[in-house]
Amino acid sequence: MEPAAKPQTARRRLSRAAFYMHLWIGVIFTFSLIAISITGILLNHKRVLGLMPAVEHEPSGPLSDALTLSRLAEIGLSAVPNREDASRTRDMSRIDRMDVRPRNGYAKVRLRDSASTEVTVDLNDGRILHVGPRGDVLLERLHSGEVFGGRGVLLSDAAAVALVIALITGYWLWLAPKLFNRNPHGTSRDTRVSANPGQEP
After folding, report:
1. Same domain assignment for residues 44 and 81
2. What local confidence, expressed as pLDDT, does residue 84 receive?
3. Pick from 23, 172, 191, 199: CA 20 to 30 A from residue 147's CA?
4. Which domain holds residue 12?
5. Are residues 157 and 62 both part of a single domain?
6. What is the distance between the alpha carbons of residues 13 and 2, in angstroms, rounded to a whole number?
7. How far apart are CA 32 and CA 147, in angstroms?
8. Which of 55, 62, 165 has the alpha carbon at shortest distance from 118?
9. Residues 105, 59: contact at Cβ < 8 Å?
10. What is the pLDDT of residues 115-139, one digit of tens each?
11. Confidence grade of residue 21 (pLDDT, cut at 50, 70, 90)
């Protein structure tokens, strides 16, 4: 084999490997990548789509006079009684998280139920401003893969790595013929791109 043919053979093998890697990544991770893309778009517009309730409210008093967190939690729990066991209505373990927003004068109490119910409570007088499900919670769990458990998160990570590899191999398959199939005058010897990178021109 002539010395000049060795680099061409190596590039041809690399292009063949990149082609099949690009192909099978697309086949295997199609569902995951589509799910991540769609849920990401929806999460970017969750307020417009009504997935995250927008509560317009001005503070009813200074933050120094705000109710305690425990009191706000009790108010939030009492707004959504436990249907299975009324005695557990004020059980603090029902709360998933609390989001205090002094600028808006309210606190959001999110419960650990199937609908991810959220109760918005005035910081100062304890008025309940809104009660309803958070539609974006399921989308967030789908986006991260958490909805499928701990292994689902790893699947989401694998899909992200696969996307990076698909981009790299895609750029290689697109640029390699343009970079290497040129004569000394800088023009392309063959502008045709074969469907099979391993096929002889």
Report:
1. no
2. 75
3. 23
4. 1-52+135-201
5. no
6. 17
7. 13
8. 55
9. yes
10. 889 999 999 999 999 998 888 888 8
11. confident
Whether residue 127 is found in the same domain as residue 59: yes
* pTM, rounded to two decimals: 0.62
Tell how strand 117-122 and strand 106-111 pair up.
Answer: antiparallel
Q: Can you list the alpha helix ranges (DSSP code H) found in the chain?
A: 5-28, 30-44, 69-78, 136-144, 150-180
Strand partners, 97: 110
Q: Is the dihedral of CA 84, 112, 142, 144 positive or negative?
A: negative
Q: Give the CATH number of the domain where residue 91 resides.
A: 3.10.450
pLDDT band at 193 (very low <50, low <70, confident <90, very high): very low
How far is 76 from 128, CA to CA, in rounded Å? 8
Degrees, nearest 5: CA angle 139-36-108: 25
Say if residues 116 and 80 touch (Cβ distance below 8 Å).
no
Strand partners, 118: 110, 132
Helices vs strands, H then E, count in the chain: 5, 4
Q: Among candidates 108, 95, 93, which has minimal Cα distance to 52? A: 108
Distance CA(69)–CA(24), nearest Å, equals 52
Average pLDDT of the segment spanning 45-71: 88
Angstrom distance (rounded) from CA 149 to CA 141 = 9
Contacts of 59 by beta carbon, 8 Å cutoff, 6+ apart: 102, 103, 104, 105, 123, 124
